[in-house]
Amino acid sequence: MTLVTPLAIYVLAALAEIAGCFAFWAWLRLGKSPLWLAPGMLSLALFAWLLTRIDVDFAGRAYAAYGGIYVIASLGWLWQTEGQVPTRWDLLGGALCVLGAMVILAGPRAG
């Protein structure tokens, strides 16, 4: 399996998780209809299913590597959906998270 496939799965998972969580945010914080919850829950279920598609032996490793991708996707959501430009500190923190995810994904495995 190439790095592109897990990366694509992680990006899709991040978008599904953020969209699902945003549906709850919209309902509870923005006063949107409770009908937002149905697609939100489906999106969160898709997120969970997508993470099971990552080819690693341990769930914790998949989740840890996913964290870096999630942070970058969240900053993209902040900018593109909420109209707030990430600060240089947001971007630096995101870059550090992605670096950590790459180390987790590409690092050698014992035994």
Automatic annotation (TrEMBL):
<dbReference type="InterPro" id="IPR037185">
    <property type="entry name" value="EmrE-like"/>
</dbReference>
<protein>
    <submittedName>
        <fullName>YnfA family protein</fullName>
    </submittedName>
</protein>
<feature type="transmembrane region" description="Helical">
    <location>
        <begin position="7"/>
        <end position="28"/>
    </location>
</feature>
<comment type="similarity">
    <text>Belongs to the UPF0060 family.</text>
</comment>
<keyword id="KW-1133">Transmembrane helix</keyword>
<dbReference type="InterPro" id="IPR003844">
    <property type="entry name" value="UPF0060"/>
</dbReference>
<keyword id="KW-1003">Cell membrane</keyword>
<dbReference type="Pfam" id="PF02694">
    <property type="entry name" value="UPF0060"/>
</dbReference>
<feature type="transmembrane region" description="Helical">
    <location>
        <begin position="91"/>
        <end position="108"/>
    </location>
</feature>
<feature type="transmembrane region" description="Helical">
    <location>
        <begin position="34"/>
        <end position="51"/>
    </location>
</feature>
<keyword id="KW-0472">Membrane</keyword>
<feature type="transmembrane region" description="Helical">
    <location>
        <begin position="63"/>
        <end position="79"/>
    </location>
</feature>
<keyword id="KW-0812">Transmembrane</keyword>
